[in-house]
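This section describes the prediction task in plain terms. A model, or a person checking by hand, is given the sequence of a single protein chain and must write out its three-dimensional structure as a string of tokens. No templates, partner chains or ligands are provided. The sample shown here is typical of the held-out split.
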Amino acid sequence: MGWNLNLRKNARVVMPYAGMMMVEFMDVGLTTLSKAAMSRGMSHYVFIVYSNAMATLILLPFSLLFTRSNRPPLTFSLLCRFFLLGLVGITLMQNCIFTGISLSSPTLGSALGNLVPAFTFILAVISRVEKVDMRSRGSQLRVLGSLVLITGAFIVTLYKGPSIGTTPSSNPSQIPTNSNSLTASNWVLGGLILSAGCLSLSIWHTLQAATLKKYPAEMIVISFNSFFGTIQCAVVALILERNPAAWTLKPDLELLSIFYSAVIGSVATPCVMTWCIQEKGPVFVAMFKPLGIAIAAWMGVMFLGDTLYLGSIVGAIIIVIGFNGVIWGQSKEERRIKEGNDGIQSSAVFIDKAPLLQNYRQL
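The expected answer:
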């Protein structure tokens, strides 16, 4: 009996770590798989429409069914908020993310994804939700960490440097793509578009936190977010994708990537992440984000034939340092406020409601 009890306790301790490693692998797997499909000719506009449509078909019925007994009433103003969330969090963000990845690589996407906490903090300060007291160690760390994060983003975007190691063109496990033909101009443009996607995600976090205060039914908010985002992305795709054949799905990598994005990216990943937040807290979950850079680099080399560059490694290291500075500063600031040292308002709403963590399926 005692042996079984210890086994359960050990499993309870290990499971959050295993869960977050699985989340990072699933997130990077999404960008790697979608990059491979887009390199074979799949339109990323069509990909976004189909994946969000499938996610909506999964999320919306279940959310309406399981929240019918305690669901707050829906109003026109709330539906307008949901429409805006879909516009910022799906239409703008996902189109920027997948356009940027198609021009660059999943490694760059994972590295720049760490900009989200810095952008969220800056937006909180600009909107006066967050007050910065430079006498506070926590505020100093967050400001310094944000500056380091942005510096790392500039390096990883603007400086490729020499390649590191041998090119893996002879690796039989690679999915044939055009990733080795990336030009410097495409790399920079992809990095800038990815940064714009991260900014959109940060804005979405801010709007989502405010919406959840008014309508505390997270599943409904996410479902309508996906519903309106699907409609908006369909309009964008119909305007920008002029090739009718692009809408015809092939039962190969294209269909697999769409299914993976809808089921794993929109359902499985948020569920595992929510459980880990409940078990260990948001800071624990955020600490695993830099792991995605290493996973993306490995998957890119193994399956896409990507080449690692010195600028990517140096910039990623700087980004990780800045990311941990922001997280550490946020943790210290929350601890200081809980202890009642002063009345500075915290940006914890952005973390507790998932701003540093939900990445969407992001990145």
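For orientation: Residues 2-352 form one domain.
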